[in-house]
Specification:
Elements: E1 11-13, H1 15-23, H2 25-33, E2 36-38, H3 43-60, H4 70-80, H5 93-114, E3 118-131, E4 138-153, E5 159-167, H6 176-183, H7 185-194, E6 210-217, E7 238-241, H8 243-247, E8 255-256, E9 263-265, E10 268-272, H9 288-300, H10 303-306, E11 307-312, H11 316-339, H12 358-362, E12 373-375
Helix pairs in contact: 1-2, 3-4, 3-5, 4-5, 5-9
Amino acid sequence: MSAPLQKPRINLMTASRLKTINACPRQHEYRYERGYAPLVDAAALKFGTVIHLGLEAWWKSPRGPEIENAHEAALDAAIAAIPTTGPYGDMDVWEHIRVMALLAGYDARWWEFSTTVEVLGVEVPFRLPMRNPTNGEKAREWVCAGKMDGVLRLPDGRVAVLEHKTSGEETGVGSDYRRRLMLDPQVSQYFEGVRTMVDPVTGLHLTADVCLYDVLQKPTLDPREATPVEKRKYTEAKDKACAECKKKKPSPAPHIDEKSGVECVDGRVLTDAGGRLHANMREHDETPEEYTERLAAHIAADLDGYFQHIEVVRLPHEQTSHQFNVWAAARDVMFWRHNGYHRQNPSACVRYGRCAYIDVCEGTARIEDPTRFKRLEDVHVELADVPAPALAAR
């Protein structure tokens, strides 16, 4: 009796995995093939994750004219979602203030907009077949997957993928940040994902018309610190000639100047005792309360700068190009896996900050070092809590 056929291993192609493959095959090996991740998340990644948790709760909060105190409840839900324990609950007080201020500003900027749209889903997972774009054949060992921050129906009827992003770089019109968004494969992946959703009204599968990048500018205002003692400068004392003494010769005995009420000494009246710290210096560190007030005012004065909606569309030929890219990436991974070698891309080591695995590639650290890296139970952390559904057709 022949042995039963072995079920092929199913691999997920997410937008994050595709980005890693494109950046560096060796990084992909460490992160997705061997399942090792940095023990400590980068500060920017942690900040973005915490903001996402707040925004998820904000968008899930019920809204509508029939709901009492809906606006207040949404912001309360966002703030309550910020973790106080665990890997994302160890923010210092200043980072915590930035998160809270940004969520409050987001609420002020987008609440009215949110009441004009239909929320079709928040944190929507999807899985769908990966197909060969040349003949439509399904891949046996790969499926496309992901989780969308939100799916909305806009007031004009368009269906929009809502994607939250936090950024510390310039995001205005003409910026490199916006140019990258126009080419971001994540958009194409999510356009595919929307097709797995069913319209609650018509019962038909949805089609995305636009991706609405929901960009939050990370505050760059830092808390003010006390000026080091050795660098402090103080104002000097100032005086002026006594008008009464000028009129009398010889000068009268010590007396009180009639105009200022200050004692005249040797024909001079003190006008400024001095000894004050210069205006651009501080005697004490800024308190958390002072920083909160200053940051909130700064964000409120520039809501359009801190919070932007950037629309990105995908034309049919662009979606086809994405399908080719995904198919080619999966094929490359199978080739690397079969040959036991994932090539390096040194140009990516410090392109967007310092790669977490650079020391391993250099041979100065081991990927198995538990003080540097953790072994993931599920390499797709963003989908770890999502059950594997039957694949949606498309």
